[in-house]
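Translate structure to sequence.
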């Protein structure tokens, strides 16, 4: 939940960027700064261990799908618009996560999970209704599904790596690997907008808060919680983004936005609150 809240600040942070910023460059720099911060933490704590102890194939593909998520999501939003791109991308992730958790981790999909996921996805749909004109583009839809599935797949791979290695070390290698794969996005592009102090602040926030710190939380949660539950909980991201848009950026609180935020919140409550032995308790 903490990771999702931090991810939800991404859009608000970008709103403070000067004109001319490149989303692909921001995505690459976000991975680079976040990866280096996590790598420094892992090295300082001597958590990386020996290279021979790592499943290099799993690390490689986790990095590939981490980078692929960034590319697919930005491209989907560009082709089919924020509304449809967000609905399909975010909505497909819990479904893919539930199926992957069921097939590869033996996780059970409870009625509670189905209800919580349905409520949260419906909330995302209502939030997206305020994003402007809806534009359907087949390639954009496929890219959005690719983003959601990529998120679920790299989460599954991270869960496997976390069984053998420290969370800081896992996230450092995977995020740095994704940054290397996206490095070509920084070649032959205009980076003059980065000279603005406000741009530096935005990029540092995205790298440190929405990448390094968020994945510090995410890895620890993923280590303890089912994959399907983790990905549904991450739907707190659009709820946070919409709330910040209203409170910080002065966006209008429409009835659809209010209903969307309420449904997502209700879905998360359904998922995390249970009644063991007649008493209420929260379980992450």
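Result:
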């Amino acid at each position: 939940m903490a990771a999702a809240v931090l991810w939800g600040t991404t859009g608000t942070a970008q709103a403070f960027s000067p004109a001319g910023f490149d989303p692909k460059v921001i995505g690459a720099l976000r991975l680079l700064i976040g990866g280096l911060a996590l790598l420094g933490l892992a090295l300082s704590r001597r958590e990386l261990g020996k290279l021979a102890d790592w499943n290099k194939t799993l690390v490689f593909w986790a990095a590939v799908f981490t980078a692929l998520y960034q590319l697919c999501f930005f491209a989907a939003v560009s082709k089919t618009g924020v509304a449809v791109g967000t609905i399909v991308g975010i909505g497909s992730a819990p479904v893919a996560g539930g199926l992957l958790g069921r097939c590869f981790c033996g996780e059970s999909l409870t009625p509670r999970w189905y209800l919580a996921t349905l409520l949260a996805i419906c909330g995302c749909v209502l939030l997206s209704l305020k994003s402007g004109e809806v534009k359907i583009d087949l390639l954009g839809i496929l890219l959005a599904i690719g983003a959601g599935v990529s998120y679920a797949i790299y989460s599954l791979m991270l869960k496997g790596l976390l069984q053998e290695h420290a969370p800081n070390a896992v996230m450092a290698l995977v995020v740095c690997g994704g940054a290397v794969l996206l490095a070509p996005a920084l070649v032959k592009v205009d980076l003059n907008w980065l000279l603005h102090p406000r741009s530096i602040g935005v990029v540092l926030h995205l790298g440190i808060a929405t990448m390094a710190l968020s994945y510090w939380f995410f890895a620890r949660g993923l280590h303890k919680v089912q994959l399907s539950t983790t990905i549904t909980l991450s739907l707190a991201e659009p709820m946070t983004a919409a709330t910040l848009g209203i409170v910080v950026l002065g966006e209008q609180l429409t009835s659809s936005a209010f209903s969307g935020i309420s449904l997502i919140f209700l879905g998360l409550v359904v998922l995390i609150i249970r009644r063991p032995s007649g008493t209420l308790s929260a379980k992450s």
